[in-house]
Amino acid sequence: MKLKSLLLGSAIAALGTAAFAEDEYIIGVMSAQSGYLAPYDGPAYAGFKFCMDEKMANGGLNGSIPVRLIVKDTRSDIAYGVQVVQEMLDDGAQFIVSSADADPTIAAAQITAADMVPTMTFAGTAPVLTQVGPHVFGSYPGDNQQGAVLAGYARDQGFEKAWLLTSPDSAYTLGGPRYFGEVFETLGGEVVGESTFSLNQPDFSAIVTNIQNAETAPDVIVTWAWEPDFPAFIRALRGAGVETQVMGGDVLDTPTVRGLGDVVDGVVHTSGGYPEEGSAYAAFIDRFTEATGTTPDNNYYVNGCDIADMIEQAVAAAGTTDPAAVSAAMAEIEDGEATMSNFTFKGTDRMPLREVVVARITGDGEKEFVLRQMADPETLPKP
Amino acid sequence: MDQLLQQLINALSLGGIYAMLALGLAIVFSIVGLINFAHGDIMTFGGYGIFLSMVFGFPPIAALCIGLGAAVVMALAMERTAFRVMRGADVISLLITSFAVSEILKVLFQNGISARPVPISFPAAWSGSYQIGGMTIGVAPTASILVTIVSLGCLTFVLRRLAIGMAMRAAAEDFDMLRMLGVRANRVVAAAFAISGLLAGIAAVIWTAQRGSVDPMMGFFPVLKAFIATVLGGLGSLGGAVLGGFVVGTLEVLTQAFLPDALAPYRDAIVLSAVIAVLLVRPDGLLPARSGARS
């Protein structure tokens, strides 16, 4: 009798657990804790978890759906990342937040395509990443939006001749400057040269010498190079006495780049947002700092928080947590509310249309606001 | 012509760094048969030494000295804790040990300091330039070449004139015979690691001065190139390591500078193909070691 009661009790408990598990919304998070993606995935995950915890404290998504996060380290290894995504799907993940770059997101999206599990990158900005399928989403303003706004700003400042510094090693480092160049030429400017580099290239002096000796001297150099390549390039450039204006993508919006001192004084870059006083972004920084003791010093934190908002709004619009329905609902969101800036997926190829900020680095390690602008979707370069 | 001369200066600057790293690898390999892939992490540690010194308010010159010292200390610590117990093991075991040490250090750097690059802001004058004829030459590459020449000159003096240097050269020829003659093995090996660490430290100083940041992977890529240089020069050959470093640096710079745009993505493949072509003709390297120390 005792044994029967025990079995019955266990069965009821198991059913109860299953019922509760069905009510949970399970989100798998690829977060590189080491390797080249760690500097981006780390802050993005911190912001995402902070805002998800806030939602959980208020009853879950839309105040009613509890969320369970499955967080796994990808070590910045794309092959291992694919394995991690499969494990998360096996564990019931209904939404995947992928690493902050196009290449691991594209790889992850191949795995999530079968069940149309919505897959959103932490901060990948190469527009090609959403071409895998209708279940793949960007979260940050795409490189073509950033390139278009930056090119417009450059032309407004009177720059006429651009030199592009690209790397074919990643969609980001190749695409950003090319989008800039396309719009720059549409607006009457001219691309007078292009140099390529390899990621983690030891030395940029040969490239700088080529720019110095170019037949037509550029008046602006544009690159989407990230760390440690950008610091190496800018030091080599300024070290050779070349004072040409340098512009870059959102990846320059880091304390490391700003900390380089005089050599980055005047460098202009795009960004996803700017924490103006009294803004929702500034309030987020205050809340995050108070709760964690860490002051967000880049946009990846707030964009992580925005991803939590995007998921919440997509689930609300879908009226269900079914992955395919959430994907479809996400793609139809127009002027959704978020902290860094509002976002629109409707009418895009699922890279959200968001405001782009242009900022300028000062020699004392700070950045100053230059402008905030939405790229014109009609004239955006195609991926 | 000016452009070619400028590119040759760039090649000497980069080749010099590779030469010093390759020499550090070759000195250790010639004595204990270890291909130390953690050599790059010694360089990285030196870079973090510079960064932390500047964070704590040391002036730049003092920070550079501390960086040098940190690299030497790290090399000695590595020898004492990881490689001494493995002495006499086969090349593969030593290689795997060095990979393990390298991984452990990278994780410690990532978690103990930062996964992302940290900036080092040197005085503006250090990234200035000057004119010679029609050429604009950077201060940093010039300093890099001068430091390389002085370092290699000093090392040559140590190896050829000082007792410890001669003991190291003898150890490279026949380590067992040296021990039978009463020379303390630990002292010779420790000296080799210290010199190797000093060379990595000098490379770190030049590297950080030119690049402006330090990250956990900072030493990995240059040491990979330095390893190629040691093989090209002749594994175990000190002169070969230096020559290999300059050859690899020159090939990299010239292909970067003069390769047509369509071939630019194949730059590394072309450099490595050239290295393979040389090794097909001279399998023991450009300046082979005289002893039988081969991998």
TrEMBL record, chain A:
| Keyword ATP-binding found | no
Keywords (alphabetical) are: Amino-acid transport, Signal, Transport
Where is the Leucine-binding protein domain positioned along the sequence?
A: 27-365
Q: Which superkingdom heads the taxonomic lineage of this protein's source?
A: Bacteria
Alphabetical list of SUPFAM superfamilies matching this protein: Periplasmic binding protein-like I (SSF53822)
Q: Which GO terms describe its biological process?
A: amino acid transport
The keyword Signal is assigned to this record = yes
According to the record, the signal peptide region is: 1-21
Identify its protein family: Belongs to the leucine-binding protein family.
What this protein is called in its record is Amino acid/amide ABC transporter substrate-binding protein, HAAT family
Q: Which organism is it from?
A: Marivita hallyeonensis
From TrEMBL, chain B:
For membrane topology, the record states:
Multi-pass membrane protein
Q: Name one GO molecular function term.
A: L-leucine transmembrane transporter activity
Q: Name one GO biological process term.
A: L-alanine transport
**Where, if anywhere, are coiled coils annotated?**
none
Q: Where are the transmembrane segments?
A: 12-38, 50-77, 89-109, 129-159, 188-207, 227-251
Q: Which N-terminal residues, if any, form the signal peptide? A: none
Which key words are in the record?
Amino-acid transport, Cell inner membrane, Cell membrane, Membrane, Transmembrane, Transmembrane helix, Transport
**Alphabetical list of Pfam families matching this protein:** BPD_transp_2 (PF02653)
Subcellular location(s): the record lists: Cell membrane
> One GO term of the cellular component aspect?
plasma membrane
Spell out the family assignment given in the record's similarity comment: Belongs to the binding-protein-dependent transport system permease family. LivHM subfamily.
Q: What is this protein called?
A: Amino acid/amide ABC transporter membrane protein 1, HAAT family
Q: Which organism is it from?
A: Marivita hallyeonensis
